[in-house]
Amino acid sequence: MELGIAGRWAVVCAASKGLGKGCARALAMEGVNLVINARSKEALDATAQELRELDADIEVHAVAGDIGSEAVRTAVLSACPRVDILINNNGGPPPGDFRDWSRNDWHAAVEANMITPIELIKATVDRMAVNGFGRVVNITSGAVKAPIDILGLSNGARSGLTGFVAGLARQPQLAGNNVTINNLLPGAFDTERLQSTLKSTAKNTNQDLEQVREERAQGIPARRFGSADEFGAFCAFLCSIHAGYLTGQNILLDGGSYPGTF
Ligand code: NAP
Question: Considering the entire predicted model, what is its pTM?
Answer without folding.
Answer: 0.98
